[in-house]
Amino acid sequence: MTPKPPDRELIGKYLDRAATDAEAAELTRRLREDPDAADAFARACRRDAWLSTRFREQKDGGYLRPVLKEVERNRRQRHRFWRRVAWAAAAVAAVATALVGRVVLLPSYPAPEAKGEVTVTDGAVRRGATVRTVHNQHTKLVLGGYCKVHVKPNSEIKVAGSPRRERIVLERGRVDCNVTPGKGQFTVETDQCTVSVTGTRFAVELLESQGAQAMLPKQVLVKVFAGAVLVAAAGAQEAVKEGEEKLVPGKVVLTAEGQAMSVGHRNTYAIATPDGQRVTKVNTAVIGKHAVGGNTLYQVAARLRSQRVKDFWLAVGEDGFAYYDAFGVTFPGDHYPLPLKEGMAFEYESTRGKVQARVVRTEAVEVPAGKFACLAIESQLEVEGKKVTWTSWVAPGIGTVKEARANFTMVLAGLQPPVEPKPEKGAVALNTFDTDEPLRSPLFARQRWEAWMGEPGRSSDVDIDPFTGGAEGTPFCLRWTYTTIGTWVSTSISPGGTRPADLSKYAGISFYVKGLLGKPCTMTFVAKAPEGEERAFAHIRFPVTQEWQKIIITPDTHPELGRIDLSRVESIGLSDAAREGAAHNVVWLDEVKLHEDAGLLRDEIEARKKIERVRERREPGRMGVGLEMDPAEAARLKTQYLQNLRAKMAPLLGQLDEIKRRLAQVGQLPAEESARLKQRQAQITDQIDLLKAQMGKTEQAIKRLREAPAVGRRNRGTDF
Amino acid sequence: MADRDTIFRLLMQHEGEIRAFVGSMLRHRGLCDDVFQEVALTLWEQADRYDASRPFGPWARGIAVNKMLERRRRDRRFPLAFSPETIEAVAQAFARTEPSARRELDALEHCFQRLPERARRLLALRYEDDLSAGEIAKRTRRTLAAIYQALSRARAALEECIRRRLALEQEGA
Fold it and tell me: Which is more confident, A712 or B34?
């Protein structure tokens, strides 16, 4: 049992933290290789721990004993199981806390306690716990016996601090505090400031953003009812006395996270002369997002009035963000370090020379797009011996809100965050053109849309239209611009790249399309043929109007599609051909989806047909080519038609409400019933969308007819 | 499977043992307390997994080993003194010596009372104030070697006393 002297010496040195590295290594080796040495080590450690505990108990007055006594007493008194468990849990938590801090359970110092309804993160009010109140809940906390904290409804605080240095962190809402003087310190912390006291009555409230202040960060209101408090914020301290209030403004910090954007984000800036006369407007749209090294690189399209100008780039890294004409090739135009805070000064090499800049203040800036909490940055540049200065106001999550230069002022006039494409049941997106790389298919990731032409000298270009807006309110769509003289042009995607792709598992394809000329267009599917045979084509012609319309193509609706081998598709795309003369056209394409569920697709086609039949039967304007009516009469009939559409809409809305109500009965519906209802909900939603579109068109037609001159008597009447 | 009351009692009984084991791996009282707290809470949470027919000590030490290795994985600066193999060897040593631990500690209690006052004052500095040998040397204005020798002598005296007492007990039995 007695360790060998060399072991004893090594172990003693190790326990006294006096062992050298070589001695520690030697001890490690012996422990691993010699079980006797390991046993001696275990015994020595046990004795060491015993001595440590004994001396600590002497010093602390046996901090474990009161806890164990309390547990035993309650175990005897309370027999109900849940109560026993709760007490034991509280006791273990208390023991653990005591072992860590040895402060809470010292007999002379009371533990935190709560009165009233309260939600605590881990079940017990103790240091580190988060206390929440909801609507109409009031809680009173007593910390250290001398700090009475009234936690108001809808508030959240964290209990922190140590004996006689009590501290809470106010995350949300309001606390009213009453601190007995002479017992210890008390601090309320918020992100914006710290309120310290030694004895007084006061309240601290985090003011949530409201109304026009929606973009401003939270402010803190400190009210003192008795005594005085010390409010520390932004590196300065200020005493607030009895009867006074202090409003601490929120902090603005620009971080890399705050500068992150989504593809599809669109801004409009108004440019005006310094005296406020509007000159022009600039639209910007984020059209691409790429990871380059440690940076996220955003491609931003810009339009001056109606003319698209050169794209620029915004690079956001952990340590800064910068605008470039050409990323990686030139110096930036503007470059800001991150995180950016008030008071920071910095300089950078720009395309125009060395810029010296300083964040001069935090400021709420009101522009036509709203009110934003910004950092105001003053920059200075020397060009050919002349000093050029300008001020930029930059807001987290927004970017530049305002820029004032000697010869113009630019303000944010519109802000359009991207609208997510609506997911469609049973369908997968071949392209929605709203992704980080819009022309690249999310389904066939390596492939992108390309433009082709039959003969050189013509033109066929494909790009993302950043400013027109996509179908169904989404930000982007594909724009195909072409000029053809006696040849074909196309834009297409090859799903499998150089290999044919198997699309036979899909029941059909749908997409939205519109055109500048409103002339028909063709969707062409190309399938690889067996060796020795020519490739197979399926050309599907469909009408194109100047407004978005949804086209659905299936082997049932278009039998020509069924004649090619859909398991060997080489490409899918739009094509056009002009046999003679030149044709310049622009076609927009969006929301190209492949459908897996044939049933759903059939239902949608049926619903559309039905609507079309109703439209043909009821809409007077479609009674036949060449038949002319008096516009007033036509407007009357169209109004009647509009009323019919509205009458048709009403029961659908009722049905939709009923379905939503039933679906809201969570857990009460069998899965099959729930699925059926959801399917029906999707169908009705589509019908409503179609009716809405039809109503919109009819309203426009009525407006046109009411503005049109009356038709002469000679041209009307008998023919009709 | 054990109920939480049982676990609580076992935890209280084995507290010294678990702390000794954790402390043998981490020569830092604050961290030792941290790890012990984590172990205690895990034991509490996993009460339903404990097989009451098996000894509690090895199960608790296993959880302590996992906690320490997990902390080390998360933070490379976590001052774990030994490699996983050595920790395993020490855990086995604790298991081997555990049955006689109670008697040894009772003997230690007896022997501690018989230590000379000077040795007890030295141990108080070492354990009550949690000072290292170097810190004690600085505070008492003695050389490190002298302090180390004095500590070593005090421990040797305790060991010798415990050995004699246990031998006497065995003879008496």
Answer: B34
> Which amino acid is present at A529?
A
**Per the structure, how many domains does chain B have?**
2
A82 inside domain: no
Take residue A320 and report the two structure tokens written for it: 């800064």
Together in a domain, A399 and A434: no
**Domain range for residue A15?**
5-60
Q: Which residue of B has its CA nearest to A97?
A: B37
CATH assignment of the domain containing A329: 2.40.360.20
A265 and A330 in one domain? Answer: yes
A215 and B CB contact within 8 Å: no
Is residue A219 within 8 Å of A257, Cβ to Cβ?
no
ipTM of the complex: 0.91
Chain A residues lying within 8 Å of B82, measured CB to CB = 28, 31
Cis peptide before A339 (omega within 30 of 0): yes
Alpha carbons B24 and A50: distance in angstroms, whole number: 12
The secondary structure element, H or E, covering residue B154 is helix B144-172
* Domain termination residue (choose one: A196, A215, A248): A248
Q: Which residue of B has its CA nearest to A40?
A: B93
Name the token pair of A498: 């150089």
CATH code, A707? 1.10.287
- Assigned token pair, A327: 């990323």
Which parts of chain A sit beneath pLDDT 70?
Answer: 1-6, 56-108, 122-123, 182, 198-199, 208-217, 234-237, 327-330, 579-582, 616-630, 666-669, 708-720
B159 contacts A88? CB cut-off 8 A: no
Amino acid at A662: R
The closest alpha carbon to A27, from A43, A5, A47, A11, belongs to A11
The one-letter code for the residue type at A392 is S
Q: Report the gap between the CA of B87 and the closest CA in chain A (Å).
A: 8
CB A334 within 8 A of CB A353: no
Question: What residues does A314 pair with on adjacent strands?
Answer: A298, A323
The domain that holds B25 is classified in CATH as 1.10.1740
A25 residue type, one letter? A
Chain-chain contact of A51 with B123 (C-beta, under 8 angstroms)? yes
Residues A460 and A533 in one domain: yes
Q: Are residues A559 and A641 in the same domain?
A: no
Q: Do A45 and B89 touch (CB under 8 A)?
A: no
**Cross-chain Cβ contact B85/A88 below 8 Å:** no
Distance CA A281, CA A267 (A): 10
B138 near B106, Cβ under 8 Å? no
Q: Provide the number of structural domains found in chain A.
A: 5
Q: B53 is in which domain, residue-wise?
A: 1-99
Question: Is residue A572 within 8 Å of A495, Cβ to Cβ?
Answer: yes
Residues A233, A257 contacting (CB under 8 angstroms)? no
CB contact at 8 A, A492 and A524: yes
Sign of CA pseudo-dihedral A89, A90, A93, A99: negative
Residue A75 lies in a domain: no
Model confidence band, residue B91 (pLDDT cutoffs 50, 70, 90): very high
B158 closest CB neighbour out of A18, A47, A85: A47
